[in-house]
Amino acid sequence: MKAKELQELLDFIAKSGLNKVNIETEEFKISVQRDPNTKHVTTIAAPMAHAPAPAAPAPAAAPVAAPATAATETPAGNYKPLKAPMIGTFYRSSGPDSPAFVQVGDMVEKGQVICIIEAMKLFNEIEAEESGRIVKALVDNATPVEYDQPLFLIE
Hints:
A hairpin with a 5-residue loop joins strand 2 (28-34) and strand 3. This protein is mostly beta strands. The protein has one helix spanning 3-16, and strands spanning 20-24, 28-34, 40-47, 61-63, 80-83, 88-91, 107-108, 113-119, 122-127, 132-137, 143-145, 150-154.
């Protein structure tokens, strides 16, 4: 794996918000672990015994954006979170020039598409699990999301 590819992989992992990733191939083994209480990613990369060393050293720590506080705060009331069924990249519309599937204040029906999550180049339509009104969008467009992360609050 080239140094540029390694840096791109580390940047993707940092943006995804994952706390731990292990990747092992015949050529190398990478373990990335982030302490949820800090804003840095600690990286340990070790080439396998029969593989050549990487051309450039991997950075010891890469900064990670702090998670949005709105995603962790849940306002009081009769709100139910709509959670991500998978990890991937969250999109509020089907394309950059398309309008968002739903806006705050919109009424949604059970089964209505309210967003898309891209996972491994597949775009998965996410449907409302129940009918109600969108009270709050908890995730910004084109942001990595984790499994079971709240995306919207529905009243």
